[in-house]
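Hi team,

Filling in the usual template for the complex we talked about on Friday. All components are listed, including any nucleic acid strands or ligand strings, so the model treats them as one assembly.

SUBMITTER: L.P.
PURPOSE: interface mapping
COMPONENTS: two
RESIDUES: 654
SEQUENCES:
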Amino acid sequence: MPDAKPGEFDLIRQHFTRPTRHTLLGVGDDAALLQPSAGQVLAVSTDMLVAGRHFLPDTDPGRLGHKAMAVNLSDLAAMGARPRWATLAIALPEPDPAWLAAFADGFHAEAQQYGVDWVGGDTTAGPLNLSVTILGEVAAAAALRRSGARPGDQLWVSGTLGEAACGLACLQGQLDLPAPARTHCIARLEQPTPRVALGLQLAGLASAAIDISDGLLADLGHLAQASGVAAVVQHAALPTLAALAERRATPLVDDALLAGGDDYELCFTAPAAAAQAILAAGIAAAVTVTCIGTIRAGSGVTVVAADGTVRPARRRGFDHFDGATCP
Amino acid sequence: MPDAKPGEFDLIRQHFTRPTRHTLLGVGDDAALLQPSAGQVLAVSTDMLVAGRHFLPDTDPGRLGHKAMAVNLSDLAAMGARPRWATLAIALPEPDPAWLAAFADGFHAEAQQYGVDWVGGDTTAGPLNLSVTILGEVAAAAALRRSGARPGDQLWVSGTLGEAACGLACLQGQLDLPAPARTHCIARLEQPTPRVALGLQLAGLASAAIDISDGLLADLGHLAQASGVAAVVQHAALPTLAALAERRATPLVDDALLAGGDDYELCFTAPAAAAQAILAAGIAAAVTVTCIGTIRAGSGVTVVAADGTVRPARRRGFDHFDGATCP
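RESULT (copied from the run log):
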C-alpha cells in the first residue's frame, strides 16, 4: 500500500519513532527485520480497536495509546510469552499532531515498560481505527494454550474482576460508587495492566490459560471448549474490589464480575499439586491469584452459589456485532 | 480486546480457517505460535486499507481480499524475504456472510500461492477497514534495504509502470482505452501481482530496493534519501503497456508512469557489473526488468528527457491526508 508522504510521514516519524533495543532494522523500510531468539517460538496476536465500539470517542489519547498496547500485551501474557516487538496501524480522520503525540506517548510508555520495540506502522485517513500486532517469544513446550485443562485441575484467576465494566457503568451514569472506587474502576477500564509477569511465571506451570477480555464466563467457556472439559466456578470465591463486593446484590455489579468485558486478567488452570507453586508465581509477579473453582469431565461453565445451588448465568459477554457500544 | 463471540466467531472461523502448513498453533488461542527458521531473520510489515481511501467501496470482495494480501506480499518482495505468515484484522459495518466468504477466498488464494499461513485475526463492527501484518524470512545479510544504493549503481524497475493509475482513471471516466488495455489496467489496479519471486532472486544481489506503491518518483525519492544518493531516471526508458506508451503525450498517462500509485513493482539498484545477473534474475522470476537510469552522488530524483533536458516533475505521489480519494 501507499506509504505516508513527507508531511504525514514526518508527523508519524516525529511522534512514534523511538530507539529500538533489540531490532536489526526498525521503521522506515518496506519491512522491519527482527532476530528471533534461539530455542524460542514466536507468539503472534492482532487486535483491532474501533472508536465507539471498543472505546469512547473522546477517550484521552494517552490512555488510549496505553490501552492499545496493553490489550495486546495481555494476549501474550495469556500464552506465557515474553513481549518483544509490535506494529501499529492507525486510521485517523485527520492528522492531529497533539492527539498523535499524546497517543504515541501512552503507547510507547507501555511498550517500553514491557520491553517492546515498535517496528512498523501505517497511517492513513479514515474513521478512527487502531490495529496492533504484537510478537513475543516463548519456549514451545512452556507456552500456555487454551486446550491444556484436565479434569481435576484447579481453576484460578489473577487480580480482581468486574472493575472495568463497573468503570464503564460509572462513566455512563448507570452506577454510583464512592470516589476512590469510581476512580479505580475507570482506571482499570482505560489503563488496564497486562499480566505479563504472571504469564511468564505460569509458562510451563499452568495447564491452560486465557485472558479475560470478554468477561469470565465467555472466556472460560472458550477455555473449557478448547480443552474438552467442564468448568465449575464458585461464585463466592470471585475476587473483586471491596466496594464492589459490598454491592454484589446489584445485578449490574454481579454481572460485571461474571461477564464484564475488558478485565485483562488471566484465567488459568493447574493441577492441584501445583497450588503452592501458583501462589508463589503470583507473589513473584506481584499480583494476587485466587482459586475460583475446578475443572471436571464434561463441557460448559457452571456457576455454583455459596449454598451449593447452580446459578443461572445472565450474560455471556460482549458480541461485537450485537447492538452494544463500547467497551 | 474482546474476541469474537460464538455467532461472529463461527462466521470468521467458517470463512477464514484453512489448514496451516508450517505453523505450530494457528487461529483460536490468545496468540498463534510460529517456529522461525534457523539462520533467518524475520521481515515484518503492516498495511491498513480503508474503504473510499485505498479502494472503491463497491470493489468486488474477492479482488479486495486478493489485493489486501498482495500489497503486503509486495513489501516482503521489496526486502527479498520469503513470505511465511500473516494476520488479518477486519472492521465491517455488519457481518455479511457472502461478502466475507468472497473476501476470504481472494485473500487465501493469494496467500496460498505464496506459501503464507493465516495465523491470526480479529473482527469487529465498524467502518470497513482491513489491516494485514505479514511475516517473512530472509538471511540478514541478503535482505534488500532502501539504504544500500551507491553512486555508479544502475537503477532498475520490474514489470511495467502506470497501469494501475490508468485503470483507476478508466473507472473514473477520465481515460478512454481500448477494451483489452482497459481490462488489463483495471486488473492491475484491483489484482496486483507482488514480485515475490523476483525479490527472492534479488536478495543478496541488488544493492537496494523499494516497492512502488506510491508511484515511481515518490518511492525512488525514499530510496535515494535512505541511501544518501541522487537518482537519475531516463524518461524514455520507462517500461509500460503499448497502449499507454502511445498515449504518453497525454499528461494523465505521463503522470501515471512517473507518479501513479498502486504499481506494486520493485524499483532497485545494483552495481553495473551485476547487470547480467539482474537480467537472469528477471528471467528466473518470469518478470521483465528494465534499467531506467543511474545512481549518482548527491540527492533527489531527476527525470531526463530523450533530448537530455531535465523534465519537471508534476506530481509526487499520493498523500493519504490530502483531499484525494482512492487509491
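MY TAKE: Chain B touches chain A through 89 residues (CB under 8 Å). Chain B has a mean pLDDT of 90.

Thanks, L.
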